[in-house]
Amino acid sequence: MRLTIRNFSAWILASLLILLGFVRRAKRKAMHGRFMLSVYFHKPSKREFEACVKWLKKNGFTFISTSDLENIIQHELELPKGAILLTVDDGWQTNEANIVEVVNKYHVPVTIFISSEPVEEGAYWWSYVTKAQQLPLQAPSKHALKQLQNEARLSIVRDLRAKITLPREAMTVEQVKRITASGYVTVGGHTHTHPILINCEDEVVYEELRISKQKLESWTGAKVNSFAYPNGNYGSREIKALQDLEYRLAFSSDPLYITREKLKDRYEIPRFGLLEGASMAENICRMVGVWQTVLHKLRLPSSRKPTEKDRQNQVQSGETPPLLSNVESPLVTPG
Fold first, then answer.
1. Which segment of 197-201, 245-249, 322-326 scores lowest on mean pLDDT?
2. How far is the C-alpha of 59 from the C-alpha of 284, rounded, in Å?
3. Which of 261, 202, 275 lies closest to 1 in space, CA to CA?
4. Half-sphere exposure of 36 (CA within 13 A, CB side)
5. Which parts of this chain are annotated as the region Disordered (predicted)?
């Protein structure tokens, strides 16, 4: 655990939730087949990721792949009890050692959603923003840039790239090819440049999805059937583009359980986010969906309110409405 006031406070709360039986009850419901769990990482340390895998195995969870999930949706495979799906976003260079080596060791599947431009060029656009603020150069915050229309964001990032040199932080093409050789790793799409899709013009959305798919398939020699929305932002337009390009599954970052009802929306599969640097107690609560539900009940201030569709889905599935997105609170995963 990274020692900060935020993490220490969250560790106290998480430890209390475990002591009071919240995790035990959530685990029991999963083991009874009430729902499946889906979680996502970004760039965890090897210690963090391995600790999560070991805890899940020790507690009897069944690891499934995105291919298994598709078979479950198509009724070609029974919904397993205690099922969990592991996913990773972006394609960080450290993923090969910290994630792929672990899944090979423990024989569990993982899907890594990769943005193709950083693989070719080395760094992610928001890293230039972070570096600019450290130098310091005048630059909007990462959060502010995510609110801009795509062309405006690109213009700012282009200026920063002309002034800043960064070391490689994304996988290389050779790494992408190498991890695909593992029988436990599936590569999925995550756009070409990692834009906020809802801020893009129609043709840009289509090209982001098409170029990413084409490049990943050419590098790996395998079909890319699954996708994760950058920053979790999407709408009906993005779903239509995915369908046109023959993606078969897409993942959001809405922190909800995968219920039978949720399986009807194969382009809106929810996932619980884990927080690198947090305590293991907190991430246990996150993996089983307890963290998000409890924070919602505490009514911490949120930067995004549930939509009408969210509320309808929660009522239909009998769930307690959880916190849906990035929350302006020190206890919630940052965007």
1. 322-326
2. 11
3. 275
4. 26
5. 302-335
Q: Is the pLDDT of residue 217 over 70?
A: yes
Tell me what pLDDT residue 314 has: 39
pLDDT digits (tens, 9 = 90+) for 149-202: 999 999 999 999 999 999 999 999 999 999 999 999 999 999 999 999 999 999
CA distance 162 to 150: 18
State residue 324 phi and psi, 5-degree precision. Answer: -95, -20
Q: Are 323 and 332 a contacting pair, CB within 8 Å? A: yes
CB 14 within 8 A of CB 284: yes
* DSSP-assigned beta bridge partners for residue 71: none
pLDDT 10s digits, 255-276: 999 999 999 999 999 999 999 9
Facing residues of 188 across strands? Answer: 113
Task: Write out the residue limits of the CATH 3.20.20.370 domain(s) in the chain.
Answer: 5-122+168-317
Predicted confidence at residue 304, as pLDDT, reads 42
Q: For residue 99, count other CB atoms closer than 10 A to its CB.
A: 25
How far apart are the C-alpha atoms of 224 and 180, rounded to whole Å?
11
Instruction: Determine the Cα–Cα distance for residues 42 and 229; give it in Å rounded to an integer.
Output: 13
Has residue 98 got a pLDDT over 70? yes
The CATH code for residues 5-122+168-317 is 3.20.20.370
Bridge partner list, 187: 112
Judge whether 79 and 72 are in contact, CB under 8 Å: yes
Give the chain's mean pLDDT: 90
Give the pair of three-digit tokens for residue 84. 């969990």
E strands, 53-184, in order:
62-64, 83-90, 110-114
Q: What is the number of other CB atoms lying within 10 angstroms of the CB of residue 85?
A: 22
Cα–Cα dist 31/34, whole Å:
8
